[in-house]
Amino acid sequence: MTRTAAIELGDCTHHNLKQLKKINSVVFPVSYNDRFYLDVLESGELCKLAFYNDIVVGAVCCRIDTLGHQRRLYIMTLGCLSPYRRLGIGTVMLNHILNYVENDGNFDNIFLHVQVNNEGAIAFYKKFGFEVVDKKQNYYKRIEPADAYVLQKNLKNTPEGTTSEKIQQNGTMNGTSSSIDSN
Fold it and tell me: Which of 111, 180, 110, 107 is nearest to 149 (CA)?
């Protein structure tokens, strides 16, 4: 009998927080401070560990953010261990987030920062309707390249137009910082 691989998402708790820290330290070129992990524990459905055949191989962590009158979801981290990439794990994590915002119904957009040379991540998010809407110079500290793209998926139009239209008019977008503590 052939067993198909099972991809499941599980809650982040005090009991598995070290696994999340380990995943993040291996997958991302930045370190996250203790405040980040305390916030994650309060995130509920917005932070999930990804399991592949009962092994933790990835995680997604988000937070609710506001810009003016817009309610936005910020993807702080979404990553998977290298040997487990291209198996649909990232898609399961992102679909979880997309379903969350759809079921909520009150989000204007979803956004995240991606290092400018991370072509794989940029292509991945574009498949789901995200667009590059801004470039943040020197967003990262002590890693090269230091610049990041802001990728965004608009969920609804605002009376003043979409965020993408505002960016084209203003030439920039106000950034938000995540809980990054670079080494």
Answer: 111
Positions marked catalytic: 74, 113
User: pLDDT tens for residues 24-74?
Assistant: 999 998 899 999 999 999 999 999 999 999 999 999 999 999 989 999 999
Is the Cβ–Cβ distance between 8 and 59 less than 8 Å? no
Rounded-to-integer distance, Cα 60 and Cα 15, Å = 17
Query: Tokens 């401070």 — which residue?
Result: 33
Distance CA(124)–CA(94), nearest Å, equals 10
Sign of CA dihedral 128, 81, 25, 12: positive
SS3 17: helix
Show the tokens assigned to 30. 């930045």
Tokens of residue 5, six digits: 């691989």
pLDDT above 50 (res 175): no
Write the pLDDT tens digit of every residue in 92-116: 999 999 999 999 999 999 999 999 9
Q: Which residue has the higher pLDDT, 173 or 40?
A: 40
Exposed e or buried b per residue across 19-39, where buried means at least 16 C-beta atoms within 10 angstroms of its C-beta: bbbebbeebeebebeeebbeb
Which position has the higher pLDDT, 150 or 31? Answer: 150
State how beta strands 70-80 and 131-136 pair. Answer: unpaired
Torsion from C-alpha of 153, 156, 157, 163, nearest 10 degrees: -30
